[in-house]
Amino acid sequence: MRARARSAAPHARAVLGCAALASALALTVAGCGGGEEPAKAGASSSPPIAVPSVPLGTPAPGASKMPAVPKVQAAQVKALVGRWTGPNGDHFEFKADGTGAWMKGGQALWNGKVIPEGKGKFRFSWQGGDPQSASYWGATLTDGGTKMLFAGTNQTYTKAKG
């Protein structure tokens, strides 16, 4: 048994090392504003938006992929269609075909499809799939449909008039 434990130790250290490296890279990319120097990242005085960590990368061989995004009818997303302005100069924009984008400073933070859950709740697709268990990757309409709470940042967005 001891021989087995010793031979597994280098493997365990390698796995932990890879996990630490992946975490450090993710934090570095997320924390540095996309690799731009702060002076070049934008002249906006609004605070940066913390983009929630979401499932990234290609699934490991043999791992199951996310389910396909269901077809959406315009009536299912009608209440969400339009522009939603956030408190930090960012906004969401949704179309009647169920597509949407989260934008800040002319850059897309997310784009994909909206998946209705019912009762004013929506999930957002990720990398072409339906992240059914990622409850933080979606939004809920509040205040009679005039406000939208994005679960990813816990920020409230207001529907633009017009």
Structural summary, described in words:
This protein has 162 residues and is an alpha+beta fold. It is built from two helices and eight strands. The model is unreliable at 1-44 and 54-63 (pLDDT under 50).
Highlighted features:
alpha+beta; 162 residues; 28% strand
User: Mean of residue pLDDT?
Assistant: 74
Principal-axes geometry comes out as globular
Taking the sheet with the most strands, its summary is:
8 strands, antiparallel, barrel
Strand content: 25-35%
Number of strands: 8
Order of helices and strands: HHEEEEEEEE
User: How would you classify the helix and strand content by structural class?
Assistant: alpha+beta
Concise overview:
The chain is an alpha+beta fold and 162 residues long. The protein contains two helices and eight strands, in the order ααββββββββ. It is 21% helix and 28% strand.
Secondary structure topology:
Layout: H1 2-31, H2 74-77, E1 82-85, E2 90-94, E3 99-104, E4 107-118, E5 121-124, E6 138-142, E7 147-150, E8 155-159
Antiparallel strand pairs: 1-2, 1-8, 2-3, 3-4, 4-5, 5-6, 6-7, 7-8
